Amino acid sequence: MRLHKFLSRSGVASLRKAEEMIAAGRIRVNGQVAAGPGAAVDPARDRVEADGREVRAEERVYLLLHKPAGYLCALEDRFGRPLVTDLLRDIPERVYHVGRLDLDSEGMLFLTNDGDFALKLTHPRHEIEKTYRIRLRAPLSGEAAEKLRRGVSLENGFRTAPAGVKILSGDCREVEITIREGKKRQVKRMLQAVGNRVDYLKRTAVGPLSLGDLGKGKWRRLTAEEVALFME
Ligand code: URA
Questions:
Q1: Which of 29, 33, 161, 229 has the most crowded Cβ, counting Cβ within 10 A?
Q2: For the whole model, what pTM was predicted?
């Protein structure tokens, strides 16, 4: 395995950061400063050190969390607010959230230490569908629904791709939105662009997986088959 990949798989740093660490001479393989990111390492035999500390090949971990409102998708918070990782118990590996849900949003959130998996899910090139159930301040008009289906211009000029829109309630305030993009606060901004406001948002599906009956605040490991759905 190439050295920078090994470092990112082991949770030391992202691929790019790992390359920087190698270039800065912070990584040693069997006692020698590593020559470059492309150096081959055998995780079973070679001793790799980052800043003098041994790096162990980490088990790859894939979790699905039902994020409750009030938890932050961040590694730390200077205001001491609860973090999504506070909800994980007995996970010795360092895991990172894949994409983000806002502080007040709920629903499906993946956490992993596998950078490749995270990239598959978040890179726009892969166009993974994400479905959100939302409650709106005002009823969604037929005209606004059509605009969202065709794509709208956000306040910064970004034009969204066509979205799926399903009205779920008679008062037209419960709506399901499906998008293949993941700009910051995208769903809320899309609804703002058609003069409405999101009062509640829950991510209910990502690609072929849905939240199912996983309780709020609970998590489970993905099966190997579920991971494979995103990795092909
Ligand atoms: N879109 C939003 O506006 N907020 C989220 O948390 C997720 C998607």
A1: 29
A2: 0.81
